[in-house]
Automatic annotation (TrEMBL):
GO MF annotation, one: ATP binding
PROSITE patterns (alphabetical): ABC_TRANSPORTER_1, ABC_TRANSPORTER_2
Pfam assignment, any one: ABC_tran
InterPro entries named among the record's database cross-references: AAA+_ATPase, ABC_transporter-like_ATP-bd, ABC_transporter-like_CS, Metal_Ion_Import_ABC, P-loop_NTPase
Protein name: ABC transporter ATP-binding protein
Gene3D superfamilies the record matches: P-loop containing nucleotide triphosphate hydrolases
SMART domains: AAA
């Protein structure tokens, strides 16, 4: 089992957002996590990162995440937040190369081979022209792609992405989803991706987890499930019982 969620209950104080969620991802897969604004998608990721208290169990590779120290350092888990703000000047190349942090000792400098790897992922994302730019001067979508490049270098087994295509144009939305699919099929990664871009899921193989449903479960991505979930979300929020 790569990821197992067992009877997860999570929220804030009296406000329970995730009630008894259970599912398992037995082999590398792409999982789109969908739901209305405020449904608890980011909260679910916070539980994964042990940033909030929760009941139930979260297991990765059969290990309880509560007992697993520093899964990022071990290359088990990586995370791309919805917003990641930097307020000091830094070159795109220098930011991306930091994705290799777990291969470095404390204070060890990044070398030519590391910068070469960073340049390669930037090229793959068609961002080579931005390599020497100051990150803080880039557009929102460009910044989002640069973070994605850094995440690629982290090369973790399980990748959590919170709306990675939110600010992207139609071309890059498709390109990023295709890339995430490639990570699962060619590199054996498990990708959990929060998204509101349901129609971009249509060409993909994987699963949908709709956290707005009363009993969310993994549904295979097909044109029927995408359309049914889109209709479900368009119908509006269900009253909380
Ligand atoms: N630290 C917190 N304390 C109390 N309530 C919080 C906290 N963080 C988030 N919430 C609330 O929990 C609810 C779920 O938030 P969450 O960020 O998980 O939603 P989401 O499904 O990711 O939504 P969106 O699609 O808008 O990003 C929201 O109503 C939010 O206001």
């Amino acid at each position: 089992m790569i990821v197992e969620v067992k009877n997860l209950v999570a929220g804030y104080g009296q406000r329970v957002l995730i009630r008894n969620l259970s599912f398992s991802v037995p082999s590398p897969a792409f999982v789109a996590i969908i739901g209305h604004n405020g449904a608890g998608k980011t909260t679910f990721f916070r539980a994964f990162q042990q940033k909030i208290d929760y009941q139930g169990k979260l297991l990765v590779h059969h290990q309880d995440l509560r007992q697993l120290s520093n899964p990022a350092e071990k290359g088990i888990l990586s995370y791309l937040p919805q917003k990641n703000i930097i307020n000091f000047p830094i070159k795109v190349h220098d930011l991306v190369v930091m994705g290799l942090f777990r291969k470095k000792h404390f204070f060890e400098d990044y070398g030519a081979a590391d910068y070469q790897q960073a340049a390669q992922v930037l090229e793959q994302l068609q961002l080579s022209h931005l390599i020497d730019h100051d990150f803080t001067t880039l557009s929102g979508g460009e910044q989002q792609l640069v973070w994605l490049a850094q995440l690629m270098l982290q090369d973790a087994d399980i990748v959590l992405l919170d709306e990675p295509t939110q600010q992207l144009d139609v071309y890059y939305k498709n390109k990023v989803f295709a890339l995430l699919q490639e990570w699962t099929i060619q590199k054996g990664k498990t990708v959990l991706c929060i998204t509101h871009d349901l129609y971009n899921l249509l060409p993909l193989k994987g699963y949908i987890l709709n956290l707005s449903k009363p009993a969310p479960e993994l549904e295979p991505i097909t044109s029927e499930t995408v359309k049914a979930n889109q209709a479900f979300l368009e119908a509006g929020r269900q009253p909380v019982l």
